[in-house]
Every structure is written in structure tokens, then in C-alpha cells.
Specification:
Distance between the termini: 38 Å
Order of helices and strands: EEHEHEHEHEHEHEE
CATH topology: Rossmann fold
Number of domains: 1
Oligomer: single chain
Structural class: alpha/beta
CATH class: Alpha Beta
CATH superfamily: Vaccinia Virus protein VP39
Strand content: 25-35%
Strand order of the largest sheet: 5-4-3-6-7-9-8
Helix content: 25-40%
Number of helices: 6
Number of strands: 9
Shape: globular
Largest sheet: 7 strands, mixed
Radius of gyration: 16 Å
Length: 201
Amino acid sequence: MEQYFSDQPAANAEERTKIKVSLAGKELILEGAEGVFSARHLDKASAVLLAGASTPPAAGTFLDLGCGWGPLAITLGLLSPAAQVLAVDVNERARDLTRTNAQRAGVSLQVGSPDQILAAAKAAGGLDLIWSNPPVRIGKKPLQELLLTWLPLLKPDGKAILVMGKNLGADSMQKWLCAQGFPTRRLASKKGFRLLAVSPA
């Protein structure tokens, strides 16, 4: 069985699915594909983040960590067109979809592999904002390693907004992040998900 968090070739046209979605008040018809997370609709966790996160700053360097087919990154681009919006995913198919969907939505994103986007974030002097519905199913330790790769790139006044399922370890993750030196508070609890705000170490 294919996993959405593994690398895969770009999807052929016949493998793609249509996704009707409203992002930042804009009605869009975007594309998903099998082998990419939530291939046929906007997932509940991302919807909770989009509904509960405060409006991003007008400018800065923002990251969608684990972009899938791109709903969070595209929303950031729509809300803050002057910002540099980065989108990263290990899955080549997801990256390809995000590029296509960003073009459809009329937003400019920089989409790439982890190495490419790490380099871009460092070249920008760090990150002002991270939005992420992190891939919890990769396992606890790989998820912790993932967060410890990206959270240190937050600027002193930056923040990360994470959405995680309560039954998938959101509360223990909050405690763990605090123990790692990243002050983390709960912004909301909705539909079985926690919305967490993470401050820089």
C-alpha cells in the first residue's frame, strides 16, 4: 500500500481527483491524487487550523510543513500575497500538485524537497510563521525529529501553528515541545483536534 508520506512520482492526469474547496474566501477547484494525504477533500484537521489560526502578517517568510496538495500554503499566499511562502513535502506527487494548485489559485509559492526548502528558509534569515498539519503517522520519533529540524528556524518573534488529533498524541506533543524549550499553548480544541501555538526556543 502506498503511503502519503513516502516519495512518489508525479501523478498522471488520469490519477488526479478534483477538489472543490473554499480557501481564504475564494472558491477553487483544485487537484488531489491517490498517494497524497486527503486526496479527495480538505481534511478536518487542516480545516480546524484554517478556521482557528489568526490572519498571518502581510509580509514575511512562511512555511507550510508537509504541504500535501497545498491548501495551507495556498491560503497563506492568498491572505499575504507580499509574503514569501514556502511549501515542503517529501512526496514528489504532493509537491507537483501544490505547484499546479497554486497556479490555479493565482498565488506564488516556492515548493520543494526538504533540502531545497531548508536552504531557502536559511537564506531568508529564518521563518516568521509555520503552519502545519504534521504527518503524525510517520511515528513519534520521526515526527519529533521533523519538528526539531524546522522549529529552530523560527525567528525570535515567529510562531508555529500546529494541528493534531487529540487521540494521536496532541497533548503529549504539547508537553514534549515545552520540554524541548519551545513554549507551546493550546489555541483551540475542536472536533477532536488540538490547535497548538509554538513559540521559538
